[in-house]
Amino acid sequence: MNIFRLLGDLSHLAAILILLWKMWMSRSVSGISARSQILYFVVFITRYLDLFTTYISAYNSLMKIFFLSATGFTIYLMLVKFRSTYEKESDSFRIEFLLLPTACLALIFNHHFDVTEILWTFSIYLEAVAIFPQLFMLQKTGSAETITAHYLFALGIYRGLYILNWVMRYYQEDFFDPIAILAGIVQTVLYADFFYVYFTRVVSARKNMELPI
After folding, report:
1. How many helices and strands (H and E) does the chain possess?
2. Number of domains the chain contains
3. Which domain holds residue 157?
């Protein structure tokens, strides 16, 4: 494992912990898209089918268990415990527009035509666009809480670091996975506009804090 893979995993871990902390401390899930979280849960289920059949390392197994359980718990908080604060009307992106195309792509473009490989490929394609409902919700409401913005920023950093991970693996191991790399690039591009808004707001907030009273 190279440094970019490790930092990418830690960024992904931080993003989920930030989101859970925000929900638990505020006792609210406002501004968060349950549809995006459901898509991420589908991503992890289809990608980690080998959890109980193939052992790679303790680190690998623990990360898989964390992502599955933490995302499942996030969905529970949103749709059960703090359901009264869930903004269902604003979270209206039709996820079938993401599920069907990515499923078709996985059937057509994959490394091997078998069930496990197709589901893994599907998870890669779906993860690239799973953030769409969240970004759509932000655009619809026109605002984002600071914690929600930090969550999205950490997710974007995670994807950017994973691209560097694939580049390093190519030079160090002569390993190249076009499906994972292209999907990662698409996902990172989706965050580009958000990154601009995030940095301008952070800089603006810091300037306001430095102004004399």
Report:
1. 9, 0
2. 1
3. 3-210
